[in-house]
Amino acid sequence: MLSQQKSVKRLSVQFDKPFERREVAGFWKQVLPSPWVVLLAIITAAVGFLYTHELDLTRHSMPTAAGTSADLVFGGHSTIVSSLVFTPNGKTLLSGSWDSTVREWDIAARKPLGVTAKTDSIIFNVALSADGKTFTTAGQNPALCLWKKDSGRKTVLIGKSDAVRSAAFSPDGMTLASPIREIDIRLWDVASGQPLGEMTGHTGVITAIAFSKDGKVLATGSHDKTLRLWDVAEKKEIARFELQDRVSSLAFSPDDQMLAAGTSERSGIRIWNWRERRQLANYQGHTGGTTALAYSPDGRTLASASEDRSIRLWNTATGKSVATLYAQESWIKSLVFSPDGGFLASGSDDGSIRLWNTARWIVTG
Question: Which strands, in side-by-side order, build the sheet including 236-242?
Answer without folding.
Answer: 206-211, 217-222, 226-231, 236-242
